[in-house]
Design a protein that fits this description.
With 231 residues, the chain is mainly alpha-helical. It has 2 domains: 48 residues; 177 residues, no CATH class. Helix content is 56%, strand content 5%. It has 11 helices and 3 strands; from the N terminus they run H-H-E-H-H-H-E-H-H-H-H-E-H-H. A 3-stranded parallel sheet has the order 1-2-3.
Length: 231
Amino acid sequence: RAAPTDGILITVLRLLLKYPEVLAWEYLWYESKEDLAKLLYGTIKAIKPQAQVGWHLYHNGTTWLPIHRAEVDYAELVPYSDWLKPVVYHDIAGPRIRRDIARLHQRVLREISERQYLELLYDIMGYDKAAEPGLDELMTTGLSPDYVYRVTHQCVAGVGGRIPVYPGVGFDIPWNNEHFHSDPDKVYQATLKAFEAGAQGLIVSREYDEMRLPNLQAVQRAVRDADAAGL
């Protein structure tokens, strides 16, 4: 199919200017989800005031989709949250980012290369391009422990110390229904980086039945070392 005369991205931006309700509807979806969270928080507190209620912050929003990241203002979550869990699944982030880059390149971002978009994404999300994998490495390498630090720090800074942040450091998460290998040394560093960024706890992720023992032991070592270092 032939591209529009003015190009794909320009045409899409023109449609958004003509029909701003497209973005408004996207934000209404987000607001409705948060309205449900507020209702749940109030109901739980009414039943059991001492209960601690927190929220899992989706991986695409914390890590690689700028529009979803823009929807979430961490400070605005504080009044109906006792803690937050930003997802920082460093390994499986690689294949997930690679998949969505391919999808965007086939559609709205066809006019720039996949490699150009990845570099732009790293800049937009505030990642260190020198520390993160190139396009050809995403499917096998995943993101770095430095990514875990940066995303955790964003959330910690966003809530301003009013509630704790418990990042979800994830490993051994399947891709296409097959085990995605996680390196224990990298899991150790990712866990340590979460505490260095100001995390006050940790949610070891994703599912216990997916996890391999060497990686669980790496988390244990990192938690002990973080505690010994006063983090």
